[in-house]
From TrEMBL, chain A:
Assigned keywords, A-Z: Cobalamin, Cobalt, Isomerase, Metal-binding
Domain spans labelled B12-binding: 9-138
Keyword Zinc-finger included in the entry's annotation: no
Database matches in Gene3D superfamilies: Cobalamin-binding domain (3.40.50.280)
GO molecular function, one term: metal ion binding
Protein name per its UniProtKB record: Cobalamin B12-binding domain-containing protein
Pfam families membership: B12-binding
Family recorded in the similarity comment: Belongs to the methylamine corrinoid protein family.
Taxonomic source organism: Natrarchaeobius chitinivorans
Record-linked InterPro entries: Acid_CoA_mut_C, Cobalamin-bd, Cobalamin-bd_sf
Cofactor(s) this protein requires: adenosylcob(III)alamin
UniProtKB/TrEMBL annotation, chain B:
Similarity section: Belongs to the SIMIBI class G3E GTPase family. ArgK/MeaB subfamily.
GO molecular function annotation: GTP binding; GTPase activity
One Pfam family hit: MeaB
Protein name listed in UniProt: Methylmalonyl Co-A mutase-associated GTPase MeaB
Spans annotated as Disordered: 216-250
Record keywords: Chaperone, GTP-binding, Hydrolase, Nucleotide-binding
């Protein structure tokens, strides 16, 4: 209808990685992003880091949101980041991590290149605003 | 083309997945510079088989595409998939969920899956799809599959960018009256009754068969969507020659996409249709129709852009709309007045557009 629909739109991949069957949060985020006017690709459950990398590269997303509630973030996230680097996609992809991430692990994830970590209780608006402000300009 | 785009193009032709992904984004966004890029890509394209797959939501399209891609890969062919999902008419946002079903080929970068939302309007989606197909073709994909929900005219236009169109009909898609209706069933080159292990599959096959027979008898066939205005059916009352080279009757394939049953038969029919296209000369005819449509769409977009700036000069659409609302003008007069200077320009120009190509 409006000319807004044409031209650029923020593309996001919402990804569930590893052996973690809790996708309620990912669904809520996917829907909220859609309503914010983003294009959301949802990975589905139980994806390996390789699959996430493949999807991120092929879909050329601006934002990769990884949802992890299993506690395996310190092994899975670096694998994803390394994969992105291999395809030259690490620099200009905004990587977010959501879920249960203990405070003492956060610095390490940031060093890996994660732009922001959203724990339990983060408001949807906060996440959307962060994406709008920080999505890479290409 | 600027230096960045040149190196992007070079990387794409070199086989960089990232570059292909980036070029498709530029196409989707209509980024500055996308046109010379696509225009260069045309020189490298034209070798891939382009297959369109459509059907109602939940018919099993993505799952079938997944199995199709897997089988082509086993045969050593590379595959590109463009999966189109609707976008919200309110926010423009979309959830693109087709990728979830494409699990058989995960980790295999030679299956390049790209999700697209139906963002543009006015033929914009079919242009973007055609251009994305061209990019994948130039990249060197052997088979390119375009998958979309068969909901309306827009989607039908999209799927018609393919050379061979398969329409999925799940069992229990309504009675035989549904098969009389115009629309999606008319564009099929191959019918796929997916979920063929379910009750009612036989009946659906039977109803489709009757529909196809009916089309044969009347000569206003539903056989071959691209040939509807072609020369191969006038006056002969739909008679078919036995060698199958002059006309095509859509076959019906039964599949169970979740198990992969019937996928080989489906691939055989797709290949048979491809051979028919070559043998009958239909493929060239089809390409001409497609390119004519591309040229028209591009021209429409360009003229539209010129008119938009004309609109701005005239004070913007809002002011004009308000003038109509309060009764100071009507839409026809406004349109005439806006177009008047453009028409006068064209008259004065004495247009001698002489296009020459080597």
């Amino acid at each position: 209808m409006s000319s807004k629909q044409e031209g650029e739109s923020i593309r996001c991949l919402v990804a569930k990685v590893g052996l973690d069957g809790h996708d309620r949060g990912a669904h809520v985020i996917a829907r909220a992003f859609r309503d914010a006017g983003f294009e959301v690709i949802y990975s589905g459950l139980h994806k390996a880091p390789d699959e996430i990398v493949q999807a991120t590269v092929q879909e050329d997303v601006d934002v990769l949101g990884i949802s992890i509630l299993s506690g395996a973030h310190d092994t899975l996230v670096p694998k994803v980041m390394d994969g992105l680097a291999e395809y030259g996609a690490k620099e200009d992809t905004l990587v977010l991590v959501g879920g249960v991430i203990p405070d003492e692990d956060r610095d390490e994830l940031r060093e890996e290149g994660v732009a922001a970590i959203f724990g339990p209780g983060t408001s949807i608006e906060e996440t959307i605003d962060f994406v709008r402000e920080n999505a890479p300009q290409r | 083309m600027n230096a960045d785009d040149e190196s992007l193009l070079e990387d794409l032709l070199d086989g960089s997945h990232r570059a292909l992904a980036r070029v498709i984004s530029k196409i989707e966004n209509r980024s500055p510079g996308y046109r010379p890029l696509v225009s260069t890509l045309y020189a490298y394209a034209g070798t891939a088989d382009v297959i369109g797959i459509t059907g109602s939501p939940g018919a099993g399209k993505s799952t079938l595409v997944d199995k199709l891609a897997e089988t082509y890969r086993e045969r050593g062919e590379t595959v590109g998939v463009i999966a189109i999902d609707p976008s919200s008419p309110f926010t423009g946002g979309a959830v693109l969920g087709d990728r979830i079903r494409m699990a058989s080929t995960v980790g295999d970068m030679d299956v390049f899956v790209r999700s697209m939302s139906a963002r543009g309007t006015l033929g914009g989606l079919s242009t973007a799809t055609t251009d994305a197909v061209t990019a994948m073709d130039a990249f060197g994909k052997d088979k390119i599959i375009v998958e979309t929900v068969g909901a309306g005219q827009n989607e039908i236009d999209v799927v018609r960018t393919a050379e061979t169109v398969a329409v999925l009909v799940p069992p229990g898609s309504g009675d035989s009256v549904q098969t009389l209706k115009a629309g999606i069933l008319e564009i099929a080159d191959v019918f796929v009754v997916n979920k063929a292990d379910r009750d009612g599959a036989d009946r659906t096959v039977q109803e489709l068969r009757e529909m196809i027979e009916l089309g044969k008898g009347s000569g206003f066939g539903n056989a071959g969507h691209h040939g509807a205005d072609g020369t191969n059916r006038d006056g002969d009352g739909g008679a078919r020659s036995d060698d199958g080279s002059t006309d095509w009757t859509p076959p019906i394939v039964e599949t169970v996409a979740t198990t992969g049953e019937g996928v080989d038969a489906f691939i055989d029919e797709l290949a048979a249709h491809r051979r028919y296209l070559e043998a009958s000369g239909e493929r060239s005819e089809q390409a001409r129709t497609r390119h004519a449509e591309e040229i028209r769409t591009l021209l429409r977009e360009d003229v539209n852009a010129i008119l938009e700036s004309e609109l701005e000069r005239a004070g913007g659409i809002d002011a004009l709309a308000e003038a109509v609302r309060i009764g100071d003008a009507d839409p026809y007069t406004v349109a005439d007045e806006l177009l008047d200077p453009v028409e006068r320009c064209l008259e004065e120009l004495e247009t001698d557009v002489d296009l020459e190509f080597e």
